[in-house]
Amino acid sequence: SDVPVNPATPPCAELHLHIEGTLEPDLVFALAERNGVDLPDPDVGALRSRYAFTDLQSFLDLYYENMAVLRTPADFAEMTRAYLTRARAAGVRHAEIMFDPQAHLARGVPLAATVEGIAFVLRTSEAEFGISTGLIAAFLRDRPAREALEVLEDLLAMDAPIIGIGLDSAEVGNPPSGFTAVYDRARRAGLHLVAHAGEEGPPSYIAGALDDLGVERIDHGIRCLDDPALVTRLAAEQIPLTVCPLSNVRLRAVASLAAHPLRQLLEAGVMVTINSDDPAYFGGYVDDNLHAIREVHKLTDDELAALAANSFRASFLDTGRRDALL
Ligand code: ES4
Ligand code: ZN
Q1: Cα separation of 290 and 58, whole Å?
Q2: Of 9, 98, 188, 286, which is most buried, counting CB atoms within 10 Å of its CB?
Q3: Going from the N-terminus, what domains does the chain have, and what CATH number goes with each?
Q4: Quick one: pLDDT at residue 188?
C-alpha cells in the first residue's frame, strides 16, 4: 500500500483540526455513491488532480464542494471514526476538533444530524482509540455574524456537547471585530474561545481576536511576525498558536517548508503547537507535519518533545488527564 509510514513521533494533542478537512477523496466517492450525490469528477484520480491550491479561497472552494456528500449522521460518524483511527497511528492522545455547522445547514443538513453524527463517535473515543476529545463549533467569518449567533443559540438550546467556539473560512476582509456578540455569548455560556487569525490576514486580526473576542488561543497566527511588538506580546502572555506547516505551504501562506517561520516563533519564545488543519487536503496528518518540519528544520528530539509538551499545555484538557499525558 502507499500509506506513508513515519518513524515514531512523540504522543501529542491535536488542537487545530477541521473534521470536514479529514474527508479523504476515497470517502468522498464512497459517500457520494451511498447517498446518490452527483460528483463533477468521473473518478478519484480526477478529483485528486484538483488539490493544487493557490491560496486559502481556492482550497475553501473544493472543501465546501466535497462536503456535499455528507448527508446523514452515519456519514459524519464514519468520517470522524476514520480520522480517529489515523490520528491514533499519528500519536494523537487528545484532539480538539472543529466542525462547521453553517456549512452543513446551508446545504439543508439539520444541525442535530451533524452534531449527533460526530458526537456519537467522540463519546467512545477515549475508550476505543485512547484519544480524549473536545468538540469546537467554528463559525464562518464570510457569513453574517447574526447567523453565527443564531446557530450558537441553537447549539446551546440542544445542549450540544461542545467545549468551545472558533472562527474560520475566508479571513481577509472579515476581521474579528464583527463577531464580538457571538464571542460574548459563548463566554457567558462558559465555552472556550479560539479563532483563526494571521493565516492570510494581517497581524491586526490577531490582536483583534485577542482584544475584541477574548480568545485563549490563535489558530495559525504565523503573520504575527510582521509585527515585532505583537510577537513580544504573544510570548509574554504565552498565547498558544496552533501552527499547521503543511497547510501553510499548500495554501502558499509561506513559500516553502524551508521558509516556514516555525524556528523564528520558537526562538521568540512563542507557545507554538504543530497541527494538521485539513489533513486530507494538505498532504498529511500530524505525524506527517512533525516529520516534514523535523527533517527540513533539523529539529532535535528535545525540540520535538517540547512541541508535544506545548500541545498538551495549550489544550483545554482538565488538569488530571493533562498531567497524565505530559
Ligand atoms: C480552513 Cl486552513 C483554513 N483556514 C480557514 N478556514 C478553514 N476552514 C477549514 N480549513
Ligand atoms: Zn484551520
Answers
A1: 25
A2: 286
A3: 12-325 (3.20.20.140)
A4: 98
